[in-house]
Amino acid sequence: MAPYANAQQQPEGKCCGAVAEAREKSAARRSKPQPWIVLKLTIFIAIGIIGYVFYVYIGRLCIPMLRHDAGALGGRGMGIGFLVVFCLLGLMMLWAYEKVVLTPPGYARDHVKKSPAPMIKNAFPTWWDSESEADLAAARMQAANAQPSAPEPKLNEGYQRSRSSRTSGGHTRGSTNSRRNGSQNGHGVHEDENLGITDTIAPVAAAHVKATSNHGHAARSERGPAHPDVSLTLTPGGSQNGPQPLPGTQGEPKPMMFTRKPPSTPILLPEYRYCHKDGFQKPMRAHHCRACGTCVLRYDHHCPWIGQCVGARNYKFFMIFVWWALWFCVWTFATLVGVIARATVVRPSFEIDGQHVAVLVLSGLFILFTTALLGTHFQLICMGQSTVESLDARRIGEREDRVLGRLHAWWDFRGKRATRKQWDAEWGRVGREGNPWWLGSARANWEATMGAHAWQWFLPIGKSPDDGLSYTLNPRFDSEGRWRPRREWPRELQ
To answer: Does the model's pTM come out above 0.85?
Structure first.
């Protein structure tokens, strides 16, 4: 029977090994930068599309008008006007495109030296700080059955329970079912195989108590630390880093699952700014681009249409290029639609040129694309965010939507607005006061990227005012990059 069992297990083991090997190869392949020809291929495609549009618009629309051909869609004056405006918009677009393609975004490797990786302080897992269904159910039960004083964490009991689960039944580890029961994502509330082990570490026990308890400050201060070596962290203002009551409310602070919870990661500390792929500490707002294989200053996104990243030093020219590309496409689309519609009314036997239809489709698609791109980045610049940084604000907003869903019925829009106003009164707005790089106004953010003069917003001349190295931190954040509540802001900002 045993040889048969071994024979049954061998194919499964080989299959798992092949899958693991394929995953390792895929991960290694994705970590490598793309070849130069792949990065720049889309540039040649874009130039080819622009050249084709020039050929159709000038050669098959404007020149027949200038020569008074029989099949021309307009007179000589119309042809001259169309040609002048089209060439002006096309040249401005090509000028901006050349500028954004040839201007590097700025690379961190040119400004910082390689250094060893810093040690991460208090790098303990916090799997209890999640929002799985099991965690939410446990939090609800704890909030409903709250006692006047929270019990102290039983460190030795947790250790014994973890140890007994590993040794029960003659096995060295707990069974698979006992480790996986509890929630869909595998984070069980009472069946976690790590429960009791990390709770014996003083900082973890303190963090666990602080994250899961929902009792008032007085109850905590009366009983003192739960462990001789544990001390709860206090904010500069003297209050604990736990959930705080909203302005105008009285009594106990709300549990984490019912209040705003800004990220507490100290993003400006060296250990959180270190790039292990490049081996150095990144400047502020720099990120590693997988396609380019290096860290880019104020990384926004990797744009295949320009063959490189959009970063601190070419973001301005990218916006100018999108602006002129939008108007180029609008003019091409509008004039072609106008003359074709006029010809179909005047000439009953008119046959549409297939080349005109192709350019109409291309210009219409790029109108939609450039409009969405221009609107999105205009909003990001006015808010002082990059595309990557806006994802953090979006995650905060998504979490707040889930919290509001727990506090209010789906139709209680007035209650949701009132709760959000209370959060804003306590912390400030998520995308503005809650943005570490917010400069105080949309105009200041815009000028920091595009320049102080209006002509700099439309002409691809000079250099970007953003060097990608020096940024002013929002005074509503502490020196380590954590969002502070309004009561801890400078007095002139409160």
So the answer is: no
